[in-house]
């Protein structure tokens, strides 16, 4: 059964009171589970906007977006319940400790063994000894590892990551990148990463280049 | 289940930061105040209800100010199965050299119809019951009266030329309820002991205690309504306790107090709400990034808010229970035997009402929450502050509360208008100061221009802070000012009073005796103004109690006959407030001038026809003008005045009211004057000031308790305004320091920021207080508004200093952490 996101001939623009910013036009792509995709391009090209449209957070100004889960056409809300996000700024809950942050998605879904599963994942990302620490007591890399685990923990069909290593140094980026790709391959979800790091993009199954409103397969 | 736990954990977590605590403390303080008010009121109501059953001494009581005509008396006796007639009059009793003003009750042999009297041989000896009143030739004295007159059982007292033997000390009358909260000294005689020549006064009351089956009661009630329009009726079943309206008015005053407190609370909550909202938006965005629908998130946020409200309610209920029993214990003097009782329904209702009002305050936040989006985590989206929405919902809920609690619309309206003036002033000043400062600073360098630049960037947040502090300052300033002026006015009252002996009521034949006595004892009669007793019975042909149901001081006083004065000139201590006053010697005698507060309370307008029962007849007057008291020219003023030509048309004895100046030696001679004229009512100012001091004591207690509450909430507002904007300040300071500004400069910059905030708020507070003073002093308290500028300035300097100091301290604290914060993003 197919679980995909299909963007067909979409275009997107912002109109402010003075001008009209046209980001892209006539753009098509398909995102599948079990595949990793990287979107690269210069800052301001519209990568984040494209990601939000693919994730169903925003509607494009033109074209159609269709979401399929196990063969059925679903709306954006249902898709969102089955996707996870990773952000440049990590965005952990400041008042919860590491394990609390990890357990949050499961608890919101009503799982009984939320904290057991969270402990397993914490071990998997190598932070078992930091379980009781709050985000401000952790380094950026550690915070991002928890954020990655948090995105994967509830087994979503798709993961969207917007510049996940943008705030980290090269070595830390490396480990976060491999963590994300390992998890994605292990769980078989579809992973879309927006980045301007070539090294990170190189690890994805497909690479797309967005510039001047055109999306092209990159080598 | 896990969502519920999570919600609980969240709301406990939220209580760990200062915003959460301030908001809960504010809610708890408001709840405590309102619950205490409700519980106390419920206990008093319950006391009044049970009291009515036990203390009427009959099934039905009919009270009139004139004795019934024989035909009416016969009609009444024909309908009832038992009737007892009592007559109450205010007279002065003398015994040797001692004298006392008493309420004398003359009873017949049937008295009492139900219940028993309790008497004793001395005020301290064991009591016994009696099934009927004193015999002819005997008098019973109340315990306090016996002590005051130094009279013992067996001794003789002269009354109107007759010798009466004191045969018992009177401890309890079964119809005591009718006296309400009167603390007059009391005595009782048999009706036949009084000589028929004993003159009567217009304030005398005749009471018929009536027993009979229910249908007879209904018939009597119907008959009395028709035949005796000036009579008042108290029933045992479904009747209204005479104290009930008194208590209702007290409650209404406290209602206005709670409106003001709620307003302050709303300001504090609005300030903490800003941070709460930002936090919730962030939380909801993260929830939605991990697959939780927005609806669930909003429900959880609401649930968390509700849980913390419940916690506040629990805390407040406990505290209110304590406060409530303490207050009831203190009210024993007015409501003897009242018990602190619990009414779960009332508490729940109060909590429900406050919950609704707080939810109304929360509506703008909820609307904004529904727009929270995951997108904000990817890309910074601007958030508007919705000042107008918040203002609208805030004002709406305050007006709702005012509608629910206050009956004095004039006062409520004036308070709200003053608040409006302050708001407009502050909005104008904030915008003006910040814009001007920005324009001025554009071509300049330095810290001050930069401070203005930053303030302009945060204009909306800034104006919310300014308005909050300003309103708080206004209410604080005005309450303190009013309390101070009221108590100094009350203290000064006794001193500025003309004369040292008030003639509260003299009859025509007393006047000559008064003058004679005065010249014999070197005393001076300063003023004597004539009046007749008149009871307002209908307005434009509609019975008074049908015409006006809203309780007020004026309405309560109009249940009794009032003093109707006639004059051709506007008295020296009155001035025209509205309408046209009559020309001297006018033929059109059916005109009346009314005091403006009475006009407002009773909703009169010029041209209304007021019908009075005076003596045996009814008279119509057309309302043509209103007059207001002004100081100077004596203290005696009348609510109602008619042209002098009206006197010739009115068939009723004249009474007089006035003042005298007695030299020290004359005081001991007063007893002889009273022995001759027992119904002459004189009130030495010594007694008056004593009573005044008692009242002042209670007023001071109430107002200082209230000022304590206001101060507490003002502290919450200050704390909220510092804490609510701390995150912004921290970010700003971090940024400035990262750009190379020194600690000292940063502090200096913040100091400017707070100083501008405090000064604009202070200007608003003073403006609002000034407007409130102009409107409220004159109209509500009859005082001219002459603010003590030094005092106002001093208070304001104190407030501005406090705000700046607290802001400075908060800023120093934030500087310590801000740079590290900035590094963490
Ligand atoms: N709400 C908006 N209103 C107007 N312009 C916007 C809005 N959001 C983004 N933009 C503009 O759209 C362009 C693309 O933004 P974005 O998708 O964030 O690019 P990228 O992620 O590739 O840096 C930018 O030039 C940005 O200024
Ligand atoms: Mg971007």
UniProtKB/TrEMBL annotation, chain A:
Residue ranges occupied by any ABC transporter domain in the UniProt entry: 5-219
A GO term, aspect molecular function: ATP binding
Keyword Magnesium: no
Organism superkingdom: Bacteria
A GO term from the CC aspect: plasma membrane
Key words, A-Z: ATP-binding, Nucleotide-binding, Transport
Pfam families the record matches: ABC_tran
The name this protein goes by in its record: Putative ABC transport system ATP-binding protein
Organism whose genome encodes this protein: Kordiimonas lacus
UniProtKB/TrEMBL annotation, chain B:
Coiled coil residues, start to end: none
GO cellular component, one term: plasma membrane
Membrane topology, from the record: Multi-pass membrane protein
Domain ABC3 transporter permease C-terminal: 707-814
Keywords: Cell membrane, Membrane, Transmembrane, Transmembrane helix
Position of the signal peptide: none
Highest taxon listed in the record's lineage: Bacteria
Transmembrane segments: 253-273, 294-327, 347-367, 411-434, 464-483, 705-725, 746-777, 789-811
Compartment annotation: Cell membrane
Protein's UniProt name: Predicted ABC-type transport system involved in lysophospholipase L1 biosynthesis, permease component
